[in-house]
């Protein structure tokens, strides 16, 4: 079995790391470069850096900040937020990112997934999906969770894989910031309908929650923010805990 990955997420607004609950009430969580360096030292497998206001405020992700972060880490690094063209991807990869994350732009222009995969390869394209469980099923939301769609989570994930996405980063808006555990039922279904890795996001509050998302949710990787930012859980201790529960990780 492949090693499960632990991925801290740095949600960026105006160059600072922020964290909220259910995508709202953001609070400052520290300097992005300092946090990135700390996570690399602590044994994180990868980092995800999302400019959460880029789409909403119609700004491009700051390539200069990507360059600064890349200079201080030696682990794979995904960047998302405000990416709308193949050239945007080229700039970020040239700035030091290993992968890019698409969200709203991919829904609005699905062909962009294929264009990026054709030019740079599927391995560098992470399709981020923010979804909420509603009365009619799991629906995809855009623009940082501000815009509801009628797009089904599972159908969109399958379509994205067919177009060339290399991974799915699924954030449950119902669980985000609640620390009540990941959306494992939805994650298990998602993992069963696609053949690419699925990253679980939204709801981490304890080390046991990570065990559950790998065993019950069948996630390939787990992403979290506040519990790492505010040092409620140590990545190194978490990995030892997972190993004790027979979950393969890189130590």
Topology readout:
Blueprint: E1 5-13, E2 16-21, E3 24-31, H1 32-42, E4 47-51, H2 63-70, E5 77-80, H3 86-95, E6 99-102, H4 104-108, H5 111-120, E7 125-134, E8 137-142, E9 147-152, H6 153-163, E10 167-172, H7 184-193, E11 198-201, H8 207-215, E12 221-224, H9 226-229, H10 235-244
Provide a compact summary of the structure.
This protein starts with a strand and ends in a 7-residue tail after the last helix. It is α/β, with parallel strands linked by helices and 251 residues long.
Give your account of this protein's structure.
With 251 residues, this protein is of the alpha/beta class. The protein has a single domain, classed as TIM Barrel (Alpha-Beta Barrel), CATH 3.20.20.70. Helix content is 35%, strand content 29%. It has ten helices and twelve strands. An eight-stranded parallel β-barrel has the order 1-4-5-6-7-10-11-12, surrounded by six helices. Strand 5 (77-80), helix 3 (86-95) and strand 6 form a beta-alpha-beta unit. The radius of gyration is 16 Å and the shape is globular. The model has no long low-confidence stretch (mean pLDDT 90).
Helix fraction bin:
25-40%
CATH homologous superfamily classification: Aldolase class I
Q: Oligomerization state of this entry? A: single chain
Write down how many β-strands occur, each being a DSSP E stretch of 2 or more residues. Answer: 12
CA radius of gyration is 16 Å
| Structural domain count | 1
The CATH class designation is Alpha Beta
């Amino acid at each position: 079995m492949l090693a499960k990955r632990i991925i801290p997420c740095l949600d960026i607004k105006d160059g600072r790391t922020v964290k909220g609950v259910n995508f709202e009430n953001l609070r400052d969580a520290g300097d992005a470069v300092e946090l990135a360096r700390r996570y690399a030292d602590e044994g994180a497998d990868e980092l995800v850096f999302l400019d959460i206001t880029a789409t909403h405020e119609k700004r491009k992700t700051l390539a200069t900040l990507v360059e600064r972060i890349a200079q201080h880490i030696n682990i794979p690094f995904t960047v998302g937020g405000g990416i709308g063209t193949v050239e945007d991807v080229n700039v970020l990869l040239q700035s030091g990112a290993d992968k890019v994350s698409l969200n709203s732009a991919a829904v609005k222009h699905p062909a962009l997934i294929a264009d990026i995969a054709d030019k740079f390869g599927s391995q560098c394209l992470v399709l981020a999906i923010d979804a909420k469980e509603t009365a009619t099923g799991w629906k995809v939301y855009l623009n940082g969770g501000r815009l509801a769609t009628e797009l089904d989570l599972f159908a969109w994930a399958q379509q994205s894989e067919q177009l060339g996405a290399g991974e799915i980063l699924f954030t449950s808006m119902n669980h985000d910031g609640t620390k009540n555990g990941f959306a494992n039922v939805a994650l298990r279904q998602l993992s069963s309908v696609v053949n690419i890795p699925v990253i679980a996001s939204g709801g981490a509050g304890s080390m046991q929650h990570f065990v559950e998302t790998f065993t019950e949710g069948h996630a390939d990787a787990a992403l979290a923010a506040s519990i790492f930012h505010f040092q409620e859980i140590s990545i190194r201790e978490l990995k030892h805990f997972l190993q004790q529960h027979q979950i393969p990780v890189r130590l």
